Amino acid sequence: MESQGKKKTNGFRLIIVLSLIIIAGYGSSFGQIYTAKSQIVRITRSKDAIVKYPALSNDGEKLLYLSETRDLSNPEVKIKSIKIINADGTEEKVLFTDRTIRAPSPHDQSYLLCGTRPPLLSGDGTKAIFSLSINERFSLNDHYLGVVNTDGTGFRALELKNVALSSINWKEKGFKDDTWSRISNYAVSNNGRRLVLIIKGHNGPRRFGFPSGLMVMHSDGQNQMTLFSPDFEEERWVWRSYPRKPYTEGGWAFALSGNGEKILIGAQSSVEKDDYDLYLMNWEGSALKKITDFRDRFFTLADLSNDGQQIVFFYGGKKRQGIGTYIISSDGTGLEYLKSIVADRVDFEDMDSKGKRILYRHKNSGILMDLESKKETIIFHPKTPGYASSEGHFMDFPNFPSFWNPHIMTEDEVIITGTPKGRVWREFYLLTFTHPDIE
């Protein structure tokens, strides 16, 4: 009974604190909590479509996203499109739509479809990157990487070669081709030129197992280079050294610095099954460095600052301080577990390009944390001008698949979602805020 009483008392205190914060307004504080002056404006007006997976350019001017509608002639069929729109809601353009472009040879009897991975927008807003599938005949999900200029020109569907298979007689071994089966994750530099990809699987007998790898290339498809991958011997995949098995059975954190110079990845460090940690390397694979010492596989999300010096990651295991968000420097020093005054745990959503602030949600509010001062600022709540809610649906950060690093914030703007009155599906909104003066 006593512990229940304490929980109720703590709950009432938290409600009072949050109420005081919201009433306080711009520039005021309660302890180390501040409230920004914010405004919310609707971007998309999607009618009967569902909008997903937004990606914001560094200047906050362009928004890339996936749109999903029903085929009017066959309501059981979904039609997906990759679209880009100005952040003020003007000049929407369709960059790709399902079943409008045939797949490259030898799959050219099938049409390309939007894949299951979210689209990405280069920081300068000039390149859109997204996965592509072919399902009608070959059932290959996320097999190709789609690259297109955001003015609609220069579309490419890129297939990724597995160097281990290219060096053997893969037909004799029973493989259908010498490519990777699936693209699991990818990142693009600010200028849209450099790409990093997590690839998995093969198009051969299942008894061979399930390899994974790390690859880099330019967005024109040139200079493909594999940084991590196993060799193929007899009827099995063989890793020659450590670290190995990125994005497999653990170590799902993955990021590229905005300048395209640094790659962060989780990988297995020894023969021990759960011995995973985070590694940092240059884009071409040099200067590989282990920067954490958790020896556990539950790294699930990470982000790098533009210069690659600041790292934030989410860990879901029991080592160190346990589940939560951590920051660390690129040289492996300064590991710190982030704590909030109002939230039991910080589950970060995104980090700004300079590596100075992160976003996270608490109840029905969005909070910004300064990584140096640890000051926390509420940037939206139910009383923010433009806040949209319908039948108990509160505004929130967009949903993404597990292990996916969102790109939804600039220095003073964030993409959030809300349900307008009369709508069933969520729309995208631009949250603009002014940082309060913090002494």
Task: Summarize, please.
With 439 residues, the chain is mainly beta. Helix content is 7%, strand content 40%. It folds into two domains: 1-46 and 370-439, no CATH class; 47-369, Neuraminidase, CATH 2.120.10.30.
Textual characterization of the structure:
This protein is mainly beta and 439 residues long. The chain has 2 domains: 1-46 and 370-439, no CATH class; 47-369, TolB, C-terminal domain (Neuraminidase, 6 Propeller), CATH 2.120.10. It has 3 helices and 32 strands. The chain has helices spanning 2-24, 163-166, 170-173, and strands spanning 29-30, 33-35, 37-42, 50-56, 62-71, 74-86, 93-97, 113-114, 120-121, 127-134, 140-149, 156-158, 182-188, 194-200, 212-218, 225-228, 231-233, 236-238, 254-256, 262-268, 276-282, 289-290, 299-304, 310-315, 324-329, 336-337, 348-351, 357-362, 365-370, 376-380, 413-418, 427-434. The strands form 8 sheets. Strands 1-2-30-29-28-27 form a 6-stranded mixed β-sheet, with helices on one face. A hairpin with an 8-residue loop joins β31 (413-418) and β32 (427-434).
Q: CATH architecture of the largest domain, please?
A: 6 Propeller
The number of distinct helices, counting runs of at least 4 residues, comes to: 3
CATH structural class of the largest domain: Mainly Beta
Distance between the termini: 43 Å
Question: How many individual domains?
Answer: 2
**Tertiary shape:** globular
The average pLDDT value, as a whole number, equals 90
Largest sheet: 6 strands, mixed
Strand order of the largest sheet: 1-2-30-29-28-27
Based on helices, strands and strand pairing, what is the structural class?
Answer: mainly beta
Uncertain residue ranges: 1-31
Strand content: 35-45%
Rounded Rg? 23 Å
CATH topology (fold) name of the largest domain: Neuraminidase
